[in-house]
Amino acid sequence: MLTTIQAPLRSLLEWLELLFDKPFGPPWNPVRQSGTLAFFFFWVVAVSGVYVFILFDTSVSGAYSSVEHMTHEQWFLGGVMRSLHRYASDAMVLTMLLHVAREFSHDRYRGTRWFSWITGIPVVWLLLASGISGYWLVWDELAQYVAIGSMEWLDWLGIFGEPVADNFLTRGSLDDRFFSLLVFIHIFAPLFLLFMMWVHILRINRSRTNPPRGLALGALAMMVALSFAYPAISHGPADLGTVPAVLSLDWYYMAFYPIFDHWGPGAMWALAFGGSLLLCAMPWLPPRKEAAAAEVFLEHCNGCTRCFGDCPYGAVSMQPRTDGRPFEKEAIVNPSLCTACGICVGACPMSTPFKQGQALKTGIDLPNTSLDSISGRLSEAMAKVAAKYSPARPSIVVVGCDHGAKLRNIEDDATASIKLPCIGMLPPSFIDLALSDGRVDGVLLTGCADCDCHHRFGIEWTEDRLAGLRDPYLRKRVPRERLHAAWAGPGEGDALTHELAEFRERLIGLAAPVDDDPRQSGEAA
Amino acid sequence: MSDQLFSINYYIFPLVVFGPLFLWVLFNFGLREIVKIPGQMRRQRQLDSEAAKRFETERDRKRSRGPLGRQRGANTGRLGLFAQTVTYIWFAAVIGYFASSPAYKFMPPDTAMIKLSLSHPGKRKEECRQRSAKELAELPPNMRTLVDCSRERWPVHVELDFDGSTIMAESATPKGLADDGPSVFYRTFRVPSGAHRVVVRLREQGESGFGFEKSQQIDLPPGRVLAIDFRTDKGGFIVK
């Protein structure tokens, strides 16, 4: 049931991501950066808001004229700042919706990720409250409509002694004191919003809140250009003795108001509370069956802290040694934070297949997808392609992940594949083993789409390990020309096939991986 | 608001003149102490920053070599920047359009609005009673009020007739856990503009009869709001 909702949305978003990959490139893709862009637009709103507030008159009688003045008389600065303030807040809603849709469609809201989802709900509320309260302050016809609608909605709860909407009943009803309260709401709602945004990312290790500089500059330039080309303007001044007939609503914030007009406040509260409750319950509708959390094997752990440093979810922590071995610390896993991505396994220096012994043991491992089982699958894959070796078609083992392009479609006599929970689980020494063994001509690494790892850092850490920038390194003896990385999301199967074909073409031009190729002498068979 | 108040000079001139002075004072009386960073720490920060830069350069250099294949970084080519500009224009158009369009018709033409908003406590359900001297003596000193009143009040009932037909007939229970607060009404009605007769009645106790009633001929232009309030100190209903 859930998949039937997520799958089409995911397909649509992936199509959009691939579309924007072309002009921007994956690192600057605004769809992939929707979360960081929302943060960025918040700061644009905050900075422009400070300037607008300097020129703003906080009295009922002066508010409208002060906004009109900054819009028309000081259009080159005050007007642009006002427009930036409005459009950046609109863009924040847009990017936030995109971010929510992506996290939902990628199923990144259930299981251990419930915290970020739940704390995102007050962010939505506070963002709407911040935006709507801002529209009150212009004190034009739109402000009048929105303020009265908002107060009527609040009055329905019956928690106020007198209807708050009474403050807008007749001409002269609204006094400066109440208007100051509206100003305070517009200042404090964004402050709480910022606080909740901080809470929202609290449990995310190495959270990124800034978009890449190029994207930030482009987005800012777009906002400034829009502010000059299509400046934000006010409606006519508010008049509580009349009702505005036609309104230019800001649909990003006010889409609910026409529904309110037709359904009434009770239905709107039901929608708001029902919607929020549904959103709160979603991480458990149904609860995700998480794979068993990573397990630490102290007899193989030397407390090197690499798993601690690489875990994208902060699930690994270090504590003083408890087993008496001569190391300062030991790793400990918090199962409630662990997504069983296996990145810690890939980071462990003990995760090497070159050790002697029956079963492959490492310092930290996944119970359901142990390193030993991966080693076995890799051996099977190598044996499979070696068995049908043909010099005309170099053999390739593809190592992919559960969230990237489908690997079954690319398998043939010369291509075998194995899948990991995340490409970051692959210790570089496994690549070394595959290429030094002599039965495989090349190794192709793939995973999620570029810059969009499902487990956040799988691609980045893998690239750093291969480039010798992050422990554990890929040894220098490994022939780099026989290794290729092609990051491809589920919708990029064709691109992966193309990359594979290109890689094979390159391998044809290379000599055999080792001088004494076991396949030539028939050992592999 | 006078024009002088909104003059650019009004804001810019004091900022230019007093801004640096203010910053200088702030800096010399506190800020310097806060932002003062020990030389050793400053040097360490510089070294860290240089190391980070070297790492980034090295990272780019190493990543761009063989094993990672074709790197797909940000598209900063001329064609890429052009395509980004086109995309940004598209984004801006979406943001700008829905920021104020399409227009929403809140009120049909030739329509006005009646707002009835009142807050009035009904009469007490039981009459107040004078306490005897004996009763008063038995009470703690801080509770010796001469009159003993029950808290519960009658619901207030309000009816509104528009051109002879009743468009509202509602009772509101008193607010408060003991039903001792005011009864509150807030209703809005969209009505055709033009000349009409409005009759409004209020009952503050019992289940029949009305203690207050007002009938008024009104002329409502399109878009006009007619507010109906109730104040006992002003004689009952206020229609304006």
Q: Care to describe what's here?
A:
The complex is a heterodimer of chains A (525) and B (240). Chain A has 525 residues and is of the alpha/beta class. Chain A is built from 17 helices and nine strands. In chain A, the strands form three sheets. Chain A has a four-stranded parallel beta sheet with strand order 7-6-8-9, sandwiched between helices. In chain A, strands 2-5 form a two-stranded antiparallel ribbon. Chain A is elongated and about 90 Å long. The mean pLDDT of chain A is 92. With 240 residues, chain B is α+β, with helices and mostly antiparallel strands. Chain B has helices at residues 3-6, 8-35, 39-63, 78-98, 133-138; strands at 104-105, 111-120, 129-130, 147-148, 156-162, 165-172, 183-192, 194-203, 212-220, 225-231, 236-239. In chain B, the strands form three sheets. In chain B, strands 7-2-10-11 form a four-stranded mixed beta sheet, with no helix packed on it. In chain B, strand 5 and strand 6 (165-172) form a beta hairpin. The two termini of chain B are 29 Å apart. Strand 1 (246-247) of chain A pairs antiparallel with strand 1 (104-105) of chain B, so a sheet runs across the interface.
Mind sketching the topology for me?
The complex is a heterodimer of chains A (525) and B (240).
Chain A: H1 2-24, H2 34-55, H3 60-73, H4 75-105, H5 114-137, H6 141-155, H7 176-200, H8 213-229, E1 246-247, H9 251-254, H10 256-263, H11 265-281, E2 295-296, H12 306-310, E3 316-320, E4 329-333, H13 343-347, E5 364-365, H14 371-387, E6 396-401, E7 415-420, H15 428-436, E8 442-445, H16 458-466, E9 483-485, H17 493-508
Parallel strand pairs in A: 6-7, 6-8, 8-9
Antiparallel strand pairs in A: 2-5, 3-4
Chain B: H1 3-6, H2 8-35, H3 39-63, H4 78-98, E1 104-105, E2 111-120, E3 129-130, H5 133-138, E4 147-148, E5 156-162, E6 165-172, E7 183-192, E8 194-203, E9 212-220, E10 225-231, E11 236-239
